[in-house]
Amino acid sequence: MTRATKIGATMALASACALVIAACGSSSSSSSSISASGIQTPKTEPQTGGKRGGTLTVLNHEDFEHLDPGEAYFVMDYEAIYATQRPLFSYKPNTFAEAVPDLASGPAEISPDGKTVTVHIRHGVHFSPPVNREVTSADVAYAIDRGPSANVNNPYFTAYFSSIVGAEEAITKANGGPISGIVTPDKYTIVFHLTKPTAATVVHALALPLSAPVPEEFAKKYDSKKPSEYGNYLVATGPYMFKSNAEGKVLGIGYQPGKSATLVRNPNWNAATDFRPAYLNQININIGGDENVIGRQVLEGSDEIQNDPPAKSIVQLAYEHYKGQLQITPGAGDHYVGVDSKHGPFTNVNLRKAYWAALDRSAIVKARGGTLVATPMTHFLYPEIPGSEAAGGLAGPKVDYNEHPEGDMAVAEKYMRLAGYPSGKYTGSKTLEIVGSTGEPASEMAEINADTLKSLGFKTKLSLVDQSVMYAKYCGVPAEQIDVCPNTGWVADFADPEATLEVPFDGNDIPSTGNENWGQFNNPKINAAMAKAALLVGKEAREKAWAAIDTELVENAAAIPEDWDKEAAIESKDVAGVGDQWNIGSWDYDYTSLK
Q: Which secondary-structure segment (H or E) carries 589?
């Protein structure tokens, strides 16, 4: 699942590496939530036996990006979305290998030719007030129909759902669907007819928020606005709902941008239809504030968590004095630099290779917290994603601009000369616009990138904004033509290499807003290879094909690698947190409880 990720902060405790790395990589199923080193991981945290009741307080430095399940595609958003909405399928906290039926009553049925998917949905699932009625298959159809509309503009619809019959036509229409290939033969059955055998990919994607039901009679008037205002007037199907008034209005009541959000019990939720334990009575989310103040308050306080990654100084404090309140999640995605390959200097592939060669990825890792929690990135299929080893493993492809994580100016200057700058330095007039994120360590990483570009002769203008603003207003809007986005990152949508590479690098999938192909990378040969690889079946064949695509992306310097991540999270001593392995270890509101 997920998509864009915040730059997480972690710790530099080199003397502890040997002890902690082994623990953090463990897949032990021990009933204890504390590993041998005293640090929790999502794979070892118990999912049952929590205490019921109480109010959890969440202290976050940053804000949500989207609360509409049709728009949401951000780590921060997902924890609230999956607590309040029920897609057809979902992941349990300790796994990313296989989704389980959620709104669906059982596994999807795939036709022998791979071109038809049938899903039956549960009886007895109801919308929250003010809709109150039972969910039907038509509500799922409407949810997906609205995805390609210009007013919703779902960021992954083209990548995963465009093979549905009629989807391509819907993409070209301002109002999106109805999509002719989505049919509902009865109120508990939905069928997807496909133009090609991509059923396996479509089923994977049905675990994303877009498949969460939306009642047309309630949402249609809000969807007629551009952009849709449904995110301000939400109804829920999960255990929780955003606090709202009698009309379902959330904005200004259950969500005050930049300030707070409140999740309360959904009175229409039926536990008999759901696998989530949903222990808590209420979740109060406070937004904004200094990360170091937030971290200390969580570690020293009661009934609190931080659900965006803490400052590295706080993680070090937690490791030294509050080890049982610290969680580290391996295989938590990657961070790389989006460089505009459609406009400006970086249309020249040799300039991109020069940037790659010059960037000190070891300094990036140090800024992130050290090798304990980050590794220099060498290609785009990160560890624990199928195909990563076939694409080169930790060392990555053997090309000169990739061989020295500490940066190599001699190699960088070679590519500057190949780009047409005989001195090895940029001599053009362009001032690069760099938009990064506030907070630790993102701002430090942005500065490292700006300094690297200056060393290559570029003039730069660096602006730092809140992470959600960086994505929603700048790096995710192609028309802004941001030259360099140094704080972008990715978490796979599902455990398949397609979910790691397709959305960020397919040039056929660049929406006008909510764009995740930050460099607007568009290589017809690679686009065609992705389309062909998406049709393959069988783990070995898919790994081989997508590993080859990964190698092509490196050869084209599609983005500039920074690091592969393990993410940290913290909680108060009286919180029994459960992190989501599939969402960089973010605390899961449906499974977390108070002690």
A: none
Antiparallel, parallel or unpaired: β 560-565 and 282-287 = unpaired
Secondary structure of 143-210 in HEC code, one letter for each residue: HHHCCCCCCCCCCCHHHHHCCECCHHHHHHCCCCCCCCCEEEEECCEEEEEECCCCHHHHHHHCCCHH
Name the residue type at position 572: S
DSSP reduced 3-state for 313: helix
Look at the block and give the residue holding tokens 């968590």. Answer: 305
In this structure, what DSSP letter does residue 586 have?
A: P
Enumerate residues 6+ apart whose C-beta is below 8 A from 256.
none
Are 266 and 84 in contact, with CB atoms under 8 Å apart?
yes
Name residues whose C-beta falls within 8 Å of residue 463's C-beta, 6 or more positions apart in sequence.
433, 434, 435, 436
pLDDT of residue 3: 54
The DSSP bridge partners found for residue 261 are 255, 285
The alpha helices in 406-523, defined as continuous H runs, are: 409-418, 442-455, 467-469, 498-505
Torsions phi, psi for 420 (to 5 deg):
105, 20
Going by C-alpha positions, the residue among 319, 318, 267 that lies closest to residue 294 is: 318
- In order, the DSSP letters of 340-374 are -SSSSGGGSHHHHHHHHHHS-HHHHHHHHT-TTTE
Sequence-distant contacts of 456-459: CB under 8 A, at least 24 apart:
456/354, 456/355, 456/358, 456/412, 456/416, 456/425, 456/426, 457/416, 457/421, 457/423, 457/425, 457/426, 457/427, 458/345, 458/426, 458/430, 458/431, 458/432, 459/430, 459/431, 459/432
Q: Which residues of the chain have pLDDT under 70?
A: 1-37
Q: Number of H helices and number of E strands within the chain?
A: 17, 22
Q: Two tokens at 239? A: 């255990």
* Type of residue numbered 517: N
> Given phi > 0 = left and psi -120 to 50 = alpha, else beta, which region is 38?
left
**Residue 186 burial by CB count (10 A; 0-12/13-18/19+): exposed, middle or buried?**
exposed
The confidence score (pLDDT) of residue 229 equals 98
Q: Would you state the structure tokens that stand for residue 109, as one six-digit string?
A: 């049925």
pTM for the complete prediction? 0.83
Rounded CA-CA distance 181/141 in Å is: 10
pLDDT at 173: 85
